[in-house]
Design brief:
heterotetramer, A mainly alpha (328), B alpha+beta (179), C alpha/beta (784), D alpha+beta (159), A: 328 residues, mainly alpha, two-stranded antiparallel sheet, 12 helices, globular, B: 179 residues, alpha+beta, Alpha-Beta Plaits, 6 strands
């Protein structure tokens, strides 16, 4: 009984720590993105709230909280209200299986530095990632707006196209690690991070991850120039904030997955493991921002071409090659 | 095909290089409230009603500015003063609607309505953006300091009679004995 | 029928058609200043130049001056012609004062249009501009000669078309001047048309000076309701206020022109004193409250004393909608009426005139212009229906012989023979003058209803029937007292007049009166009788859009809408029902609702004053019924409920002719008693400016009405030692009224004529428009 | 205003005419004969005689060069300034007369003796340059001849 309670407390502590870190990081990622984009474009970015704009996320948050929560006429109320939460929650839940350090032994008890280590962690991640698109598709549909509807449909189509490449690109990693558990995958990279073994898989995974997060150059569901703001055109206030949060948490998740699958997860010299994981996540996210500053948005047919005709075949070929090597 | 692939990767990499290099360029943004760039006189912002060189209202309420305004933000009522001058009894610009296109200034035959570089006239209450004539009238000639419509147009105003305007002859006498 | 080619398009036109008109038929608009289809061509402006490529005269020609000929080939776009036109514009602009911003014509100026269209923007000539001194031309027309381009349209209209001589063209060469000999009020009651006809801003509208631009006005086709002719107008409204009225071309009714009464009579619609809210015993209440109060109290009186105790009085100035709603009101409640006429004599004359008209003998004004002989009986078109005088002048210019039988000192702008006789002698004179029409082929008899009685109208109708019987295309043209008197005649069911109701009030049979859009106080001839009757009433309800004295006296006052707000159907004197569309929404004008001198700064969801209902809506409410919701439903309702209005379904742009079809007019009494010895007959007659209830509210027209005057025959005046310009007092039972004396050589002896005047607030105790005054009651007050 | 005899004569002619208007110029000239020019009162009187609107009289009067609506001197000199006379030097002759009389065209000498006016064409092209004084035309003008003619008027009417 006592042990059970203790385990529960430890779990809560881990969840709290991870959630706090993820949320704070998401908020500041926005600032970092805006600042970086500014510098990429030879301007300052936000610099009015606090020194170097350090309070900008707080200001944004307050603004979003205070804004009027609009509901379009003819909207499907329940779905319209639920959609942003779906996006945010699925993104947050994915962190449950990301390991952020080796097992700690305190008082003879082993505490895994992961919220929960399930043996199908990888499938869990992909499942949640797929669920997240429900928020987009339903939010777009429930808005009763043609822009939002188009954005939602694009989101769903894009998810189907890239989910496949994303999954297939990870198969060689699973083949090498021999497990679906993320903890095992990290452990399998004790010697060599998989990026060196599987550069092709890394490339395909990174591109697919960006498409999965609906970031430039794959932001067709919200393509401002065509659709206003796509699936969240009709959202305002904190509901829009949840979509926003979901996107940035998703970025972190993808960063974490790249780190876990290809960069050796929390492994690294000198620094404590969670810091290493954090560094790797931030590196991936920074790269995503750089991409955003550099590449223009793809056309919709180009997006589909890339997914179906390039990335999936590449991933399949990669599986074949990996399998051949392993068999040899 | 490999060549093409290399080309693609190279060009993308070039793009990344360019954006990446910009990270280390000093931004040339001007910080607005701290530094206000002097704007050219032709800049189109807050609208004023100017006066003629003698200090009288230039506007004759001809309705051309309101007629040409694409957003219908100008309205007025013409009237006649005791000396026969046509003027605007009331003149109103709804700056909440104005898009500062400057067509009114182009249409104005008397140089009365002019756009100024003063773009800092935001109000918190929308109704405060509705300017009446007294808010619009200034006490100078604006960009066209010498022009006086009533010196040119041959209408009797109490200031000038028939034949008193620029390039006018004295009124004809129909009963003259001259052929 | 010559066939010619203009700009590669072939067209066949009647012989004598000018090239400019032929082009217009093809939809090619050739620029013009001096050419006007009503005035013809003079070739003064030179701007209609075209190039004749093939034909009798080749080269650049004035298209208004050459007749279309067979085999002619014309180009309007030839560079030579276009260049010519460009030069014309440039020289016409040499002396232009460049004052378009302060010119009221700006925005609908032909000169401005063509100057812009021709691309002329810089005055290359550096010499001085010729200037002129302007003249004061009265309260209606503003003169600005500097803008003149010498197209002569004004003089051609004023002199040739309308027949007045006090505007002309003096000087020669560079001094040609269009104006009067000396400053002064233009004499013609058609002077306002100068504004429409001037292609530039020489003549502009004075009362509406500087009030707005053409493009800012909501322009609606309208119909004039200031006399029975129903001339077409264009109503220009802005800020919920009528700003300007113009003539509108009509092939059937008025042609191009309207009179000044119609042009400037609309100011009643937005005068400050106009009733805008309900009134109960002098207290201002909401309109709804007043309507419900009136309904309840009328209901109570009906319950207590029976439906016979309520009378309903209307007038000929209401729309057909209002009149039919009133008939419906009386049908459902059993109330007395509605009566649309004040007295039996003129009422019966008007009714008879309307009923005497049938599809065969009715002529429109445009048909009248082609008559070759006209006999006017007791009609004074200049004063009663001014545009009719214009039509008669066109007939006279084309060679028609015009004869007038009338006691009044007629001053018509054309040659006519005046058989002056007293009102009761008109019948005999008509009988003897009938043979004057025997040589003509298209004679028209014009019959007035102002001073005649039903007998004369019938006599005139019989004359026309006889002429038709002898194979002539004879026509009958009756003028009626008010814009919709014809409609009243069609709908009238009760065979009574206001005088009858007043008698019943006096007898105590009627206890409540509902007076809808009628001003008994001013129009009823017998003031003392009316006063007595009003005192006996338990309840007086007045529904009106004018602040008439009766409205002030009423126990319950309910405002109604003007024709500009409610629209309606009006039936003119030839039975032509014409639809009028509302020109603007109801409610207080924006200039009134605003604080001080500008419109309000805040927005109100409800426009103040918009809750006023049209009079016909009120009539339905008084009957306790829901009115039809839309105008279209109301028209359908009228067609369904009144057989005589069923033809309204065929109404088009020209309107539709309605006829009484064998309806019996209200019975007429014997005419006036014989004139006693030592008496002069005083005749109250219509005046062009004054006496018409709505236009009397126009300040500018009041200025033109002058002083109240009495006209005397020279022999009568000499007998009394009275000279023109003297002031005399006429003693009536209810006091003495003073007049300026005017003397005429060509009016009936033994008759005094007083033209209605807004300042005469007196009604002689008399049967109608005629009154016998003893000679010793004429007193000279002041010598001229 | 008008000599009684002339007036009576005119009235008979007006009564006999089909349209009184056709005598408008004759009537105006008769008034002008009597008073030198057509005054406002003369205009009104003429209009009344002819049963025309006074504006109609004014229109004709201002149209014709030889009907004067403004006061003139006792002798009116019209110097032709049409093309032929101009070719033959009418401009300098006009100047000469101006200097001689001390007035500009359109003006009257201070003593009221002469009024100098240009004329569009006198129809004396064969004897150009020409001028007309009191309805009598003098052709082949030169400075000497002008001196002679004006001197004759001076003599006939001592100041």
């Amino acid at each position: 009984m006592w042990f059970w309670l203790l385990g529960y407390l430890v779990l809560m502590a881990k969840i709290t720590a991870v959630l706090t870190a993820v949320m704070v990081l998401a908020a500041y990622l926005v600032l970092v993105e805006r600042k970086l984009l500014g510098r990429f474009q030879v301007r300052y970015g936000p610099n009015r709230a606090g020194i170097y704009g350090i309070l900008q996320p707080v200001a944004d948050g307050i603004k979003l909280l205070l804004k009027e929560d609009l509901m379009p006429e003819g909207a499907d109320r329940a779905i319209f209200l639920a959609a942003p939460a779906v996006v945010a929650i699925t993104a947050l839940m994915m962190f449950a299986v990301v390991p952020f350090g080796p097992r700690l032994t305190i008082g003879g008890r082993e505490i895994p530095m992961v919220i929960t280590d399930i043996n199908v962690g990888l499938l869990y991640v992909f499942a949640l990632s797929s669920l997240g698109v429900y928020g987009v598709a339903l939010g777009g549909w429930a808005s009763n707006s043609k822009y939002a509807l188009l954005g939602g449909i694009r989101g769903a189509a894009q998810m189907i196209s890239y989910e496949l490449a994303l999954g297939l690109s990870i198969v060689p990693v699973v083949m090498l690690a021999g497990s679906f558990s993320l903890v095992d995958i990290v452990n399998a990279q004790a010697g060599l991070p998989f990026i060196l073994v599987q550069p092709l898989a890394f490339g395909v995974f990174l591109i697919s991850a960006m498409a999965e997060t609906k970031r430039i150059p794959f932001d067709l569901p919200e393509a401002e120039t065509e659709l206003g703001a796509g699936y969240h055109t009709e959202y305002s206030g904190m509901r829009f904030g949840l979509f926003f949060l979901g996107e940035y948490v998703h970025m972190q998740v993808m960063g974490a997955l790249v780190a876990v699958f290809f960069l050796g997860g929390w492994r690294g010299p000198v620094l404590p493991p969670p810091v290493w994981l954090l560094v790797k996540i931030v590196l991936v996210v920074l790269f995503m921002i750089w991409v955003r500053a550099t590449l223009p948005r793809l056309r919709y047919d180009q997006l589909m071409n890339l997914g179906w005709k390039v990335l999936i075949p590449l991933a399949l070929v990669n599986i074949l090659i990996t399998g051949a090597f392993m068999a040899a | 095909m490999i060549r093409a692939g290399i080309d693609i990767i190279a060009s993308i990499a070039a793009g990344f290089y360019t954006t990446g290099r910009h990270l280390f360029v000093r931004p040339f943004t001007e910080s607005y409230p701290e530094y206000k760039r002097p704007l050219p006189a032709r800049s189109r912002a807050r609208i004023i009603l100017t006066r003629d060189p003698e200090g009288r209202e230039r506007c004759v309420a001809c309705y051309l500015c309101s007629g040409v305004c694409p957003v219908n933000c100008i309205s007025m009522q013409a009237a006649e003063d005791s000396r026969g001058r046509r003027y605007a009894a009331w003149f109103r610009i709804n700056f909440g609607r104005c898009i500062y296109c400057g067509l009114c200034e182009q249409a104005c035959p008397t140089s009365a309505i002019q756009l100024t570089p003063d773009f800092e006239h935001i109000r918190r209450d929308l109704l405060d953006m509705v300017f009446e004539k007294q808010d619009l009238l200034v006490d100078h000639c604006g960009k066209d300091p010498d022009y006086d419509f009533y010196q040119h147009a041959g209408v009797v105003t109490g200031l000038a009679g028939k034949g008193d305007h620029i390039s006018e002859n004295a009124p004809v006498n129909t009963r003259t004995n001259m052929p | 029928m010559p066939k010619l080619i203009i700009d590669n398009l072939e067209i066949e036109v009647p012989e004598g058609t000018r090239v400019i008109e032929a082009a217009e038929k093809l939809g090619i608009y050739i620029p013009r200043f001096c050419f006007h289809h009503a005035l013809g061509a003079v070739g003064a402006c030179r701007v209609c130049a075209v190039k004749v490529l093939e034909g009798a005269v080749e080269g650049v020609q004035m298209s208004c001056m050459i007749d279309a000929q067979d085999g002619m080939k014309v180009s309007t776009t030839d560079p030579e012609a276009a260049d010519f036109r460009r030069s014309v514009i440039e020289w016409l602009m040499l002396n232009h004062p460049h004052d378009c911003p302060v010119c009221d014509e700006g925005g609908h100026c032909l000169l401005q249009d063509l100057t812009v269209a021709g691309g002329h923007s810089i005055r290359r000539y550096e010499g001085g501009k010729r200037t002129y001194t302007d003249q004061y031309l009265g309260p209606l027309v503003q003169h600005e000669m500097n803008r003149c381009i010498q197209c002569y349209r004004c003089v051609r209209f004023y002199r040739e078309y309308s027949g007045y001589n006090d505007l002309g063209v003096t000087g020669i060469a560079g001094r040609v001047y269009f104006g009067r000999l000396r400053e002064g009020v233009l004499e013609s009651p058609f002077a306002g048309n100068l504004i429409d006809i001037c292609p530039t801003g020489v003549f502009t509208d004075k009362p509406s000076r500087y009030t707005g631009r053409r493009w800012d006005f909501e322009r609606t086709p309208g119909v004039c309701i200031h006399c029975s002719l129903g001339c077409r107008t264009t109503v220009s409204a802005r800020y919920r206020q009528v700003g300007r009225m113009e003539g509108r071309f009509s092939q059937r009714v008025n042609g191009d022109f309207i009179c000044d009464r119609g042009r400037y009579g609309f100011y009643y619609a937005d005068r400050p004193g106009r009733p805008r809210s309900g009134r109960i015993s002098g207290q201002t209440v909401s309109v709804d409250q007043a309507v419900y109060e009136a309904r309840d109290r009328l209901q109570r009186i009906t319950e207590e004393h029976g439906p016979q105790a309520v009378g309903v009085i209307g007038s000929g100035r209401s729309s057909l909608q209002t009149q039919s709603a009133m008939v419906h009101l009386c049908r459902t409640t059993g109330w007395q009426g509605p009566v649309f006429r004040n007295t039996r004599i003129t009422g019966a004359a008007a009714d008879t005139a309307a009923c005497a008209l049938n599809p065969e003998n009715a002529v429109s004004m445009r048909e009248l212009e082609t008559a070759d002989a006209i006999l006017a009986v007791g009609a004074d078109p200049v004063n009663e229906a001014p545009v009719l005088a214009l039509a008669m002048r066109q007939a006279q210019r084309a060679g028609a012989q015009i004869t007038a039988i009338d006691p009044r000192p007629l001053e018509w702008p054309f040659d006519f023979e005046h058989l002056a006789c007293r009102a009761e002698e008109i019948g005999e004179a008509l009988a003897s003058a009938a043979e004057r029409l025997s040589d003509s082929r298209r004679p028209v008899v014009i019959c007035g209803t102002e001073i005649t009685d039903a007998g004369i109208v019938l006599q005139a109708a019989d004359l026309v029937a006889g002429l038709r019987g002898s194979g002539k295309t004879a026509g009958l043209f009756c003028t009626l007292p008010q814009a919709n008197s014809f409609g009243a005649a069609l709908l009238d069911e009760c065979n009574a007049c206001a005088a009858d109701l007043a008698a019943r009030v006096e007898a105590g049979q009627i206890r409540a009166l509902a007076v809808i859009e009628s001003d008994l106080w001013h129009d009823f001839p017998d003031r003392p009788q009316l006063e007595k009757a009003l005192e006996k009433l338990d309840l007086l309800v007045s529904v009106d859009f004018l602040d008439t004295p009766l409205f002030e006296k009423a126990d319950i006052g309910i405002p109604s809408l003007t024709v500009f707000e409610a629209g309606g159907i009006y039936v003119n004197q030839e039975g032509r029902a014409q639809q009028v569309r509302p020109a603007h929404t109801g409610g207080l004008p924006i200039t009134v609702t605003g604080a001080g001198d500008h419109p309000p700064r805040t927005f109100a969801p409800n426009v103040p004053g918009r809750d006023m209902p049209a009079a016909w809506v009120t009539a339905f409410c008084l009957a306790g019924q829901a009115p039809p919701e839309t105008d279209a439903q109301m028209t359908a309702w009228m067609r369904y409920n009144f057989a005589v209005l069923s033809d309204l379904a065929r109404m088009d742009a020209d309107g539709v002719r309605l006829f009484a079809g064998g309806k019996t007019p209200i019975a007429h009494e014997a005419t006036m008693p014989e004139k006693p010895e030592q008496c002069l007959e005083l005749l109250l007659a219509a005046a062009v400016f004054g006496g018409e209830p709505m236009s009397d509210y126009s300040q500018c027209l009041r200025e033109l009405a002058g002083l109240p005057a009495v006209w005397m025959d020279r022999a009568d005046a000499d007998r009394h030692g009275i000279a023109a310009g003297d002031r005399v007092g006429l003693g009536f039972e209810n006091g003495e009224v003073s007049f300026v004396v005017r003397i005429s050589d060509h009016m009936a002896p033994g008759v005094l004529v007083v033209y209605r005047h807004p300042d005469i607030d007196w009604q002689p105790r008399a049967g109608d428009t005629r009154y016998n005054i003893r000679e010793d009651r004429i007193r000279r007050i002041e010598k001229a | 205003m008008l000599p009684e005899q002339i007036r009576a004569e005119l009235e008979i002619r007006i009564a006999e005419a089909d349209h009184p208007q056709e005598l408008a110029v004759d009537v105006m000239l008769a008034f002008q004969e009597a008073a030198g020019y057509l005054s406002e009162r003369a205009l009104e009187t003429a209009a009344a005689m002819l049963k025309m609107h006074s504006l109609e009289i004014e229109e004709i009067a201002t149209f014709y060069t030889f009907i004067y609506r403004e006061p003139v001197g006792r002798n009116v000199i019209h110097v032709c300034d049409s093309v032929i006379c101009w070719l033959d030097g009418s401009e300098s002759l006009m100047d000469y007369i101006c200097r001689k009389l001390g007035i500009a065209p359109g003006q009257t000498t201070a003593d009221g003796k002469f009024t100098l006016l240009p004329a569009c064409c006198l129809g004396y092209c064969d004897r150009s340059p020409a001028m007309m004084i009191n309805r009598k035309v003098y052709g082949h003008l030169s400075r000497d001849r002008i001196d002679d003619i004006l001197a004759r008027f001076e003599r006939e009417e001592p100041a």
